[in-house]
Structure prediction request, 245 residues.
Amino acid sequence: MDTSEEGILHPHLPADQLDRAAARLPSMQPVRGPWLRTDEAYAAQMAERRRLLDGRRRDVYRQCPEGLTAARDFLTQALDALPEGFKTTGDTVLCPDGADVALDWNAPLLSVGRFLQQDVCILQKQGDEHVLTGAVLCFPASWTLAEKIGKPLTRIHTPVPDYDDAIARRVQRLFDGVKRGQPMWRANALRYRDPALFQPRAEADQRPVGGPDDPFIRSERQTVLRLGGEGAVAFIIHTMVVRAV
Prediction:
């Protein structure tokens, strides 16, 4: 492992995140405290995010026209919720790692990807289900944005074995019911052989994760935030990777 990978690793997972990871799906609970966070891996993760956005933009960023208004609302809420260490001046964000990010309101998620440590997926209610209408996804955990954009929740979760009809209904009720200003969150944790944050994988590919002897634990803190517009929510993913004990 090189020095940059060492910087991306976290020393440990938060206790509340471990507790949520052990709960059954969807296991959501109200966010206590700020819904946006930074941590000790911020600088290393942001360097990787900007590298991917510069060199592999089509793989990590998609925006459907119908999702642009909701994406702008997410950017507005994120700017209002920035943790300590950020500074905004006009349409520029000064980040804790010293980077200046110019905001582009015509590509709000592209801007978000350059200053937030979290990945963000925008989902909007279309018919009976929420549909993925935009995302900045620099750290996919064994899925690809190209296969999911424009798809509803049940289709997005193909081929997740635990995502059955009962869980799908519970998740849909959660997305329908989350209130503005009252975000909800959950967490997961899986063993991985490779600590890399960018791990896209096609649906047809076998997912080589979860082995009991795999040396790393990858955990996502997943937050659902209500947005403006009919049925729109943001699904926010904060990824942490630690060495297994």
